[in-house]
Amino acid sequence: MPAVTVDNILTLPRVTEPLPEAATRPVRSITTAPQGFEGEGFPVRRAFAGVDLAALDPFIHMDQMGEVEYAPGEPKGTPWHPHRGFETVTYMIDGVFDHQDSHGGGGSITDGDTQWMTAGSGLLHIEKPPEQLVMSGGLFHGLQLWVNLPSTMKMSPPRYQDIRGGDVALLSSPDGGALLRVIAGELDGHEGPGITHTPISIVHATVAPGAQVRLPWNPGYNALVYALAGKGSIGADRQPLRMGQLAVLGGGDVIEVRADDNQESRSPSLDLYIMGGRPIREPVAAYGPFVMNTRAELMQAFEDFQAGRLGTIPSEPQPGHDVL
């Protein structure tokens, strides 16, 4: 799990150790993500399955894509499909994923890169492995998170952000036991590169075996901790947390996690995707690729898609012809 790392973590800025009286967030629930398939058949873990939307707010949906070792010819993606009313945040840990959309956004992401697509008023997009990865096979592992938009922003113009892994803010826990990558929002005053419509923070943490981390967390945000790999515990009462599990935390000032002393050889550290945001607290009407506020808005989104008002699939360049 390379993502982005450093040779000497002790050279990084350190997160402030919370005061002893700071309230550790209690664990409300721990759920295990069921496994399934997405798009053309790539394996996913449905990280938010079975969790009340009110506890997730402002997040809607998250898939852990892989981790899978593809044989040659096996890598798969998604066909062209529409979105409206929210943002997709795709974080690539291993492998390569290509993105293209009908609004002109697109590019490739690999090892620690993020593609941030604001669907807003609507667009079409496609995600797929590049041809060379399809031919060679290889490791594929990433995440896609859906972030809701408030009603006043659901019809905002689409936007695309290409966030390189080297642009994330790299921090250390106070004792150097954890590497913290701030992808969006801020942690202890250190800001990540992702520009958000909805106030949120996203951190990818790698916690060394036996290390404990107490992260200061905005008390106005909710807090979700998903285990990408490894095993550890969470909360003041150290509830076990394993790969593929999501912890929903209650109110407080601090997220407290600890990595078990002994880890598996394939997952030598505890890797966590930590999310939080200011709840929107609006009705959610979601179906398939659309996240709106009312059933009438959902029906309008389907009508607009069927009428071609969400964009058109860009034509493929023909061999021997220049693209203007």
Question: How would you describe this structure to a colleague?
Answer:
The structure is a single chain. This protein is mostly beta strands. The protein has one domain (about 20-305): Jelly Rolls, CATH 2.60.120.10. It has three helices and 26 strands. The protein has helices at about 55, 130-135, 295-305; strands at about 25-30, 35-40, 40-45, 60-70, 80-85, 85-95, 95-100, 105-110, 115-120, 125-130, 140-150, 160-165, 170, 180-185, 185, 190, 200-205, 210-215, 225-230, 230-235, 240, 245-250, 255-260, 270-275, 285, 290. Strands 1-22-19-24-17-14-13 form a seven-stranded antiparallel sheet, with no helix packed on it. A hairpin with a 3-residue loop joins strand 2 (about 35-40) and strand 3. The longest helix has 12 residues, at about 295-305. The chain is globular, with a radius of gyration of 20 Å. The chain starts with about 25 loop residues before the first strand and ends in an 18-residue tail after the last helix. Residues about 315-324 have low confidence and may be disordered.
Q: Could you state the oligomeric state of the chains shown? A: single chain
Radius of gyration, whole Å: 20 Å
Spatial shape:
globular
List the strand order in the largest sheet.
1-22-19-24-17-14-13
Question: How many extended strands?
Answer: 26
Mean pLDDT: 90
Instruction: Quote the distance from N terminus to C terminus.
Output: 39 Å
Give the secondary structure arrangement, pairings included:
Layout: E1 27-32, E2 35-38, E3 42-46, H1 53-56, E4 59-70, E5 78-83, E6 86-94, E7 96-101, E8 106-110, E9 114-118, E10 123-128, H2 131-136, E11 138-148, E12 159-163, E13 169-172, E14 178-184, E15 186-187, E16 190-191, E17 200-207, E18 212-216, E19 223-229, E20 231-234, E21 239-242, E22 245-249, E23 254-259, E24 270-277, E25 285-287, E26 290-292, H3 295-306
